[in-house]
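Dear colleagues,

As part of the handover before I leave the project, I'm documenting each prediction I ran so the next person doesn't have to rerun anything. This entry is a single chain, and its sequence is reproduced below.
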Amino acid sequence: MQRNVDDTAASTAEIAVNVTAIADAARASKATIDASHTSVADLAGLSADLRRTVQHFRY
């Protein structure tokens, strides 16, 4: 009986570690996505600026 309790406790601890690792990975992914979103917004602004500048050179 004690062995089952010990095995269950060990399994529960391992699950907790895995859930924490998944949560950490999700936070890291969100940070990367947020940075990508900022870069895309910056690039869109630069693209609009370039489009306006190029329009002056059309004939």
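The first helix runs from residue 2 to 55. The radius of gyration is 26 Å.

All the best with the project,
I.
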